[in-house]
Records
---
Amino acid sequence: MKIRETSLPGVLVLTPGIYRDNRGAFWETWNQQRIADAGLPAAWVQDNFSVSKKNVVRGIHYQVIQPQAKLVRATQGALLDVAVDLRRSSPRFGRHVAIELSAETGEMLYIPVGFGHGFLALTDVVGLAYKVTDYYCPAGERTLLWNDPDLAIPWPIPAARAILSDKDSEGATLATAEVFA
């Protein structure tokens, strides 16, 4: 497995070794020892899975109570995955990184505690699997407005075509959001 830094320190892209032949492909999606050797959390408490159709935007979500690190990967299709630094004390507060993840490449995005997470489904069907380091806490969940101009995320879709939940369309702006210290 190869691990590379993104423009936001701590947000990492993990690329598995993929073995392809005339039958298809094989790769490890999780190896606790390799993750621990890389210095990443190896104690994940919950696995989540979502299916989205093209143009669905989910997020930008985070928890201020029971904050979670996430390890995200596409199991079907392709998505634009976004992490936003929400640590007010960080010199990169409010900055984001956007990475295309696909089932074909098997790449994963590690998002540490203190970051918001969202994505856009780029293909007709997107399966997204992710591990988290703490349990879901409805009282601690927060949503940042996905297209807040202060974030300057270059979503490759006009807002009018984005398919959103009510919660995601009514997210807080960075200027008004409850964030991390």
Note: Helices lie at 32-37, 166-169.
---
Amino acid sequence: MAEESSFVELIGRVRSGDEAAARELVKRYEPYIRRVVRAKLTDRRLRRQMDSVDICQSVLGNFFVRVALGQFDLSCPEQLVKLLATIARNRVVEEARKQHAAVRDIRRLDTGGLSDSRIDGGQDTPSQLVVARELLQKFRERLTEEEKRIADARAREQGWAEIGVQMGMTPDALRMRWTRTVDRLAHELGLVNTHG
């Protein structure tokens, strides 16, 4: 129970923009995301075109923006692991589709005798905080006034039922509307359209 309480506190701090909490979350979960990405990158030609670090940054950027906007209700680490794995797998699939498009079809690339080695480096990734902050700012700029009220209420950790009462909507209708709003903006900004 203490672990779940600590986890909920960490997510609340991340949602409120606490940089130390965001760093802690990255430290805890980035290795897991990279393992998921590597496991999904089974085609050696695809591995040469995509880097697990880049995909991991994209996954974390997507997550940080969406959690700051209050889209996710996470109460335990297992939920976060499942969500991050889903976002990561979907991101790899999306990137693979792009690479297999007619213009960039990686199957047409000559391997040129290169070995199947991967250059991952194992080095620390650049901070996702700056990217997430910029994305969040772009999201907020695109929100209507009513949508900003929803975002602000979620940032204050208000539940869907409470916000629904304030806005005259059922919690389910409000949550669905917010999910569509976040998905629309994520699409506009070129993020993966995944909401777990």
Note: Residues 2-109+124-188 form one domain.
---
Amino acid sequence: MHTIYKLLLLLSMLSIFTACDEKTEGDPLVPDILGLKAIDAPNKSYALNKHLLNINAMYSSDYESDVTEYVSWNVSDTQSGVMSTTTLNEYLANAKSGTPTISFSYKGIVGSVIIENIAIRDMNVSLSDENLSINSTYQCDLNATYEDNTSSADIDYSTPFISQVLWESNNTTLATVDQNGLITTIESGLVKITARAFENYTIEINGANEVNSSIEIIISENNSSI
């Protein structure tokens, strides 16, 4: 009789070990995935604004589990939206309007979300400082107006708008600018700073007089501007 009990116990343990071997890391101890759900998926995505799409698997036992790191992604329109190559669940809206469908799949189950992408209509770069001197730093301010007449000041960004723009100086011996729009002055003179959102929108700073949303700034040694 004891032999039978031992045999049954052995078979039970073997069944448990086999079930564990068949599991994939991150799967919960519940059966059958019923579907996938995008968490915190935005209805609208404003150009150059990042969103993180986390995916939950929904199981037959009313249990949900985050399976984002195991999901495969696809975007229907890469002209209006792209997935980041560094963080696979990071959605970055492009400067072009559209309604891209972002699809995600896990273990043969497919889900999707459609996001209305709002493009940029205009950008404006400004500086709070009117007087620029050498060997100093100055932060550029950047505002965007979108096709639905909202501005970047109206948007709650998970990542600041300014960090999604390419900044350039036309004369790095006089001043440099980093990718957060921070200008570092080196020598006196006239410098053009360009903020570029992808390749579709460009606003330029020619280095204290404001003309049509552009700014000309002269860096001087005695902390005066023209």
Note: The chain has one helix and 23 strands.
